[in-house]
Inverse folding.
């Protein structure tokens, strides 16, 4: 069974809950390289948003700059994409590589955005993706733990004790 | 699953439609769903029951085949084909033991699961569930006895006709253009495994019926065109057909 095609996906309605979930996974000794986070990049149109690097690492300019800066400091990979239908989407972790892979390979899955195609490529089924995209549009955050079946089941146990609005495991 | 989950309502709705849970109050079903974990499994996943029996699973969408096979001959017999609303590992729920069964996912699945211990606790707390569980188990036992009877007493044509008829849920008054549920779009090999036969024989039989206008089939999609004729085939006994059936169909 391919490690990267199993995942535990949790939805959070607030960024501080999502950040806490990342820290809980880190405390529970999960490999932080296998954790991804996805959220919308802006919440009020009057705020400028940006993505910059003035020194050692990439930073995010916007209402949630501190949050994304902290998350990017913890996780591997960072990106901001403008995705039709979703707007600016900020993400970190292996999901970035999946999205770039989907874009490079021109992966198209009927009815799904580029982000949806990326999630599909990591083993998440279409009907779940549609709900996740809807949740992202309503300013929720996705935390994804990629791993083998044992890891994703353990992640479910750990994260279910927090405050996710939804949590599921996706097995290939 | 939490009640605020975007999947909660549809999960409850799916269970309320199933024979096993439909007799329960919605609040009881909702309480069951809150104890469960939501999972999705990809199509073509094959698992021995040793990997699944410690959790009780309820299908929300997709189909699962439970089968046994002989590793020496490669022959396989399908014991159950399950669809939305059906549970699996139900025998392990009752006796607390794994069973020698292989589980195949025929579609991408969405399901609920909870540890067996919690499922038993839920059963203990909701004895009213037994009113639907016992008839459901009775149906499963009848299905197994039907399979044993078919294998022992009927020829392939009769077994295939009976299989298709078991999966029709149209009213008896409808005589044509009925599509069976669950077994539709299965390969002929899968159909063969459900009646203890092989792909070539099932393929030949379906072609034969197609020429007679009894069924229509394209890429696994079956349509019954002459229900009465198919019913007649299903009612044939081995003894009646032994002299007349073509040897190739035995």
């Amino acid at each position: 069974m391919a490690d990267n095609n199993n995942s535990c996906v949790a939805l959070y309605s607030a960024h501080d809950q999502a950040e806490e979930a990342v820290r809980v996974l880190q405390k529970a000794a999960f490999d932080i390289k296998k954790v991804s986070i996805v959220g919308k990049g802006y919440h009020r149109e009057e705020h400028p948003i940006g993505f910059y690097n003035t020194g050692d690492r990439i930073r995010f300019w916007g209402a949630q700059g501190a949050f994304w800066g902290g998350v990017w400091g913890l996780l591997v990979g960072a990106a901001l994409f403008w995705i039709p239908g979703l707007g600016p989407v900020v993400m970190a972790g292996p999901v970035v590589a999946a999205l770039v892979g989907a874009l490079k390979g021109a992966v198209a899955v009927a009815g799904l955005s580029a982000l949806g195609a990326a999630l599909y490529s990591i083993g998440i089924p279409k009907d779940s993706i549609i709900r996740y995209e809807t949740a992202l549009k309503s300013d929720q955050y996705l935390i994804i733990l990629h791993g083998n079946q044992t890891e994703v089941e353990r992640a479910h146990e750990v994260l279910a004790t927090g405050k996710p609005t939804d949590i599921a495991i996706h097995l290939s | 699953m939490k009640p605020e989950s975007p999947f909660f309502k549809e999960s409850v709705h799916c269970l309320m439609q199933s024979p096993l849970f439909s007799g329960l109050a919605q609040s009881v079903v909702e309480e069951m769903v809150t104890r469960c974990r939501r999972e999705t499994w990809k199509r073509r996943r094959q698992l021995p029951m040793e990997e699944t029996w410690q959790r009780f699973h309820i299908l929300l969408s997709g189909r699962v085949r439970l089968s046994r096979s002989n590793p020496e001959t490669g022959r396989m017999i399908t014991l159950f084909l399950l669809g939305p609303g059906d549970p699996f590992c139900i025998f392990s729920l009752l006796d607390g033991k794994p069973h020698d069964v292989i589980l195949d996912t025929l579609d991408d699945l969405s399901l609920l699961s909870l540890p067996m211990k919690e499922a038993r606790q839920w059963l203990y707390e909701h004895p009213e569930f037994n009113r639907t569980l016992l008839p459901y188990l009775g149906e499963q036992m009848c299905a197994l006895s039907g399979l044993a009877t078919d294998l022992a007493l009927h020829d392939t044509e009769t077994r295939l006709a009976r299989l298709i008829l078991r999966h029709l849920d149209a009213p008896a008054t409808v005589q044509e253009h009925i599509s069976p549920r669950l077994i539709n779009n299965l390969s002929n090999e899968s159909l063969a495994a459900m009646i203890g036969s092989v792909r070539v024989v099932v393929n030949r039989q379906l072609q034969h019926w197609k020429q007679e206008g009894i069924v229509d089939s394209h890429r696994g999609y079956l349509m019954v065109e002459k229900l009465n004729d198919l019913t007649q085939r299903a009612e044939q006994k081995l003894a009646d057909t032994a002299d007349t059936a073509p040897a190739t169909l035995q």
Summary: The longest strand of chain B covers residues 55-61. The mean pLDDT of chain B is 86.
